[in-house]
Amino acid sequence: MKKVIATSALGLVALGAHAQSSVTLYGIVDAGIGYQSSQTSLGSTSGGRSVIKMVNGIW
């Protein structure tokens, strides 16, 4: 009889323990890609360059 009561009690506890199906995050997510291009002047011997990078955001 004690085993039946203990098993029933554990079964009731197990019903209350379950994983949450969704997670809510609060804040601002702001990220992007930045592109910067440097052009050379007409008489310059050095070449221009382009940079693509991730831009920091706010979390």
From TrEMBL:
It comes from the Bacteria. The keyword Amino-acid biosynthesis does not apply. Residues 6-47 form the Porin domain. Keywords: Signal. This is Porin. Gene3D superfamilies: Porin. The lineage of its organism: Bacteria, Pseudomonadati, Pseudomonadota, Betaproteobacteria, Burkholderiales. GO terms for cellular component: membrane. Residues 1-19 form the signal peptide. InterPro entries: Gram_neg_porin_domain, Porin_dom_sf. GO terms for molecular function: porin activity. The keyword Manganese does not apply.
